[in-house]
Amino acid sequence: MNKLSLYSRVVCLSPHYIPYCRLKNSLASTFSRRTLRGVQTSQHSIPAAYWRGGTSRAVIFQRRDLPVDESEWPFIFLRVLGSPDRYHQQIDGLGAGISSLSKVCIVSPSTHLSADIDYTFAAVGITSSDVDVSGNCGNILSAIGPYAYNHKLVPPASKSSVTVRIRNTNTSKIIHSTFPVTNDRIEAATGGDCSIAGVSGTGAEISLSFQDPAGSKTGTLLPSGNAIDKLDGIEATCMDAANPCIFAEAADLGVDGTELPDEISDNLPLLQRLEKIRRLGGRAMGMCHDTQNAPRCVPKIAIVSKPATHKVINGTYLEQGNVDIVARVMSDRQPHRTIPLTVALCMAVAATVRASIVEALVGPKKVKKGVLTIGHPSGTIEVGVEKDEAGNVLNANVKRTARSLMEGVVYY
């Protein structure tokens, strides 16, 4: 078994790895100790913040405030978010019943020479007790730089903007987050005229530049060695940039590709097939030897199609001429209401790879020069990709907004 396959089900909460099986066993024993003995005790509290980043929300902890024993962390995360919840609502916590709002981030100063901050992402199960750290979250990443600046984990800005270098420990990749600061340079600015589809209003622009995004989990851009693989009888592209992703054409799946999330949720045969293809793709990418043991959250899978005029969630129409490609993405087995940022980044890279599913669907002339404009259920997102002369991906770039929603302590 190669090292990458060995760690495809490994929890990377720090430089110290916790095998997934040990995490689950520890979690079960923790629940047993705290919930089955009938002992009435006071709730515990821990410093935390609650942020929106892009189209996601998450509870942010600093590593120094969490228990030294990382096997105690999942219990805290599950209690704080309100999981597992058989009613799919997370009423007893800060989650909201959908994958984009059931997230935790752990932040600390970095010892890496190319980074200022270490950031670990955890996707918290809604109906299950899974805490999955197999991949990165790009949307909530947009909150990490401003959070670190506000908490003085990085030096104060010497001008009107600052760049925070973030190491995502899930993928060991570096992301540069550049954003404006307030006039007194005490905090990250929140006011501005940047808008993103899926979030009402405007905010300060946060520029995210993913450095060398290829091979985030598998070590290579095309983990299967092919631009096209055959998965469950259809052609698909398996690619790893920012996060491992699988791209399948809508027509091959018997759908238009412009369906809204609720329509996809109601199509059980489609959901089952997408999950089957996702697991087969995970095996083809070397992320698991058995499809039953594929990581829960990666690879992501996206349905992609040619530009077409269609209705989006807010009831307006997205015109065919305003997008280069249309995508519908599954995130933690739920149809995403916008698009996971890492999938958008991977898709933009895929559009530059000859013979990939994405490249074949994107027309020769882009809506905007230098960026790929992707249509998703709430609107559009623009992603830029920079390559060197040899065709290696140097960086992938996108704009987001973020703001703090709560600061204090959270109970578990």
Q: In summary, what is this structure?
A:
The chain is an alpha+beta fold and 412 residues long. Helix content is 19%, strand content 32%.
Give keywords.
single chain, 32% strand, 3-methylitaconate isomerase, two-stranded antiparallel sheet, 18-stranded mixed beta sheet, isomerase activity, alpha+beta, 412 residues, 19% helix, isomerase
Average residue pLDDT: 92
If you compute it from the alpha carbons, what radius of gyration comes out, rounded to the nearest whole angstrom? 20 Å
* Strand count: 22
How far is the first residue's CA from the last residue's CA?
39 Å
Which structural class matches the secondary elements? alpha+beta
Number of helices: 8
Strand-residue proportion: 25-35%
Report on this structure.
- This protein has 412 residues and is of the alpha+beta class.
- 19% of the residues lie in helices and 32% in strands.
- It contains eight helices and 22 strands.
- The strands form three sheets. The protein has an 18-stranded mixed β-sheet that branches.
- The relative contact order is 0.14.
- Belongs to the PrpF family.
- GO terms for molecular function: isomerase activity.
Topology:
Blueprint: H1 3-6, E1 10-12, E2 17-19, H2 20-35, E3 45-53, E4 56-62, H3 73-81, E5 103-109, E6 117-124, E7 131-132, H4 138-150, E8 161-168, E9 173-180, E10 206-211, E11 229-231, E12 234-241, E13 243-249, H5 261-265, H6 268-284, E14 300-305, E15 310-311, E16 317-318, E17 325-331, E18 334-335, H7 341-350, H8 357-361, E19 371-376, E20 379-387, E21 393-400, E22 402-411
Parallel strand pairs: 4-5, 6-8, 13-14, 17-19
Antiparallel strand pairs: 1-2, 3-4, 3-22, 5-6, 6-7, 8-9, 9-10, 10-21, 11-12, 12-13, 14-17, 15-16, 17-18, 19-20, 20-21
